[in-house]
Design brief:
Blueprint lengths: L3 H26 L12 E2 L5 E4 H5 L6 H11 L4 E8 L1 H7 L12 E8 L6 E9 L11 E6 L5 H12 L15
Antiparallel strand pairs: 1-3, 2-3, 3-4, 4-5, 5-6
């Protein structure tokens, strides 16, 4: 039988261990301080969303044909998971129907999890809306990925090449929250 005091200690120890795991993941990803607390923002999915490997590398929701192609290509290594977060400015735009344009300062985060919906992130993608003309060709959106590659402009272009298909929806795929 667990005594109430022991149970409280067990809960505290579990919470500290989880915090340590999240801190280690943030350190491993080398997130800038301004983005490191994204997990405190609103989670836009009720639970981690399962996606096939190929779509895990991109940012699109899978359909039945995608799952079938992934099973043929990756076999048992098909399953990956994502979590999506948004800061207050992003949530404001997502809360209107139809979805309003995102204002500068909006940040959407896609956390990519390998094989377990509760594991540490393997990588984290950020969309940051700017007013700056530096990102005019993507509607003001800057695309970042961590751990960062040495050529961040190439990362931006790789992400933007796909997100341009969602330009009518302000470069954002899908509807959130869901």
């Amino acid at each position: 039988m667990i005594r109430p005091r022991s149970f409280g200690t067990l809960i505290l120890a579990s919470a500290l261990l989880c915090a340590l795991c999240v801190a280690q993941a943030s350190d491993r990803l080398a997130l800038p301080a301004s983005l490191s607390k994204y997990r405190e923002w609103t989670q836009l999915l009720k639970s981690p969303y399962e996606v096939p490997m190929e779509l895990w590398m991109r940012c699109m929701a899978p359909g039945p044909a995608d799952w079938e192609a992934a099973r043929k290509m990756y076999g048992p290594h098909t399953r990956r998971f994502v979590r999506v977060y948004g800061n207050a400015a992003a949530i404001e735009a997502m809360s209107t129907e139809p979805r309003g344009p995102f204002r500068p300062g909006s940040i959407i985060v896609k956390e990519k999890l390998s094989e377990s919906p509760h594991g540490a992130p393997a990588g984290v993608a950020f969309m940051i809306k700017h007013e700056s003309p530096a990102f005019a060709d993507t509607g003001g959106w800057e695309f970042l990925y961590f751990p960062a590659a040495t050529d961040t402009r190439r990362t931006h272009e790789d992400c933007a090449s796909c997100h341009r298909a969602a330009a009518p929806g302000d470069y954002v795929f899908g509807k959130y929250p869901r």
